[in-house]
Amino acid sequence: MVYFILMKKRWIFWIGVVLASIILAGSRPAIAQEAGSSLERPGWYLVWHDEFEKEVLDESKWRREDAALVKNNELQYYAPNEVYVKNGYLVLRSRKHPFKGKDYTSGLVDTKGRLAFQYGRVEIRAKLPKGQGIWPAEWLMPESGDWPPEIDIVELLGHSSNTVHMSLHWGVWPDKKCCGKIFQGPDFSQDFHIFALEWDENKITWFVDGIERHSIDHDIPREPFYLILNTAVGGEWPGNPNSRTTFPQYHTIDYVRVYAKDIPGTYFLTTSALNGDIYVQPRQGRYAENTQVALSAKHKIGYLFSCWSGDLSGAQNPVTVIMDGHKKITANFAYDPQAPRLISRGKKTQASSWEKENLSARKVVDGDPNSRWSSEFSDPQWLAIDLGRAYNIQAIRLAWEVAYAKKYNIQVSHNGKTWRTVYKQNNGKGGTEEITKVNARARYVRLYGIKRAREWGYSLWEFEVFGRAIGRKSPPRQVR
Hints:
The protein is an all-beta fold. It is 0% helix and 52% strand. The protein is globular, with a radius of gyration of 24 Å.
């Protein structure tokens, strides 16, 4: 089974692609190393790609990191302005630049919330940075948020710029395992090289400039992964920069391409939706010729379905399509001027607990997508918002961190003491969840966590409540 999932800006673009019985070709021709090589690959279907031909980063495909990630004792702050497109290349810049408590800034982009895929081929043409303490990487992480597994397409330690590392991490924390291989070649900081990975349910194979350099046929991950491109500065593995490390350093990417194995007589359905979702039935991804597929577009909070585009036109919703070829279909949504407004921003909060003072309940209503609440590591836990007065509550958006709730209730109250459940979730998936058609009149709203999905506590980036003032006929314009 193979699933491709495209999402734009934190809202999901579903690409269901189910690859059955993928057998990688026994012989693989070398890939052209020159710029502008053909997008076509015999036997493969191009699912997703970026050639960086626009003047700015396509944020429907990429998410820029804006955080000081706490891992590996790294020294950088990942700043959005260290990621840019110039002359047809994606550039991740690393500088010695004090910023938000860190001595260095660097760049990271990923496809989290935009693209996730299970099996296929990913190909990246890049020139890597160098220097003591410089650590570029092009890698894959599970969409589920679990770790391990992890697939590293290529990593390089800047003090040894002619050596690349290819590896797989697996196991169950804390019993994590890793195996990999190094390839010593030219100085990878002096010119562009093509780093590729082919992955099916039985094997992962790594290539450098079209030549197979490593393969693994055990403990193969079988779930969707998203792509990460970054340059870390310092840390436990590369060591820290020294007086000989020059800045700025540039991690330069010419293109990124993702393919799926093409099987005659079957077709792919690729769907995308900004400000909404598309539900596909049956959700197979790879369809036999002339299969009938039902599509239903669902809008996000604050939007309404407008029309279909791509290989489908019109405004009928739901609609049925016949798979007589590969199809790429987009659902378009328009802003709803009658949408309820955001009423929870900056309001008072309470919680059953918080892990640390800087992870308190007030972080979920501050409008900062990089601050969060995290509870103690036990069940149950709760977080409540006092809206200040009663509202007609109509919708709720929960932006979960990795530590999400598998089972929870949404409750409302007039006095903050007696609670009524208006929504139950018994199989939460994390990410961004939207709960519409709440239709409750109350002053207080509470998330009551019953069962955690991880060993940690409950952790939310944002808890957003949408509604209207009681008695108001013409709602004010929505904040978000």
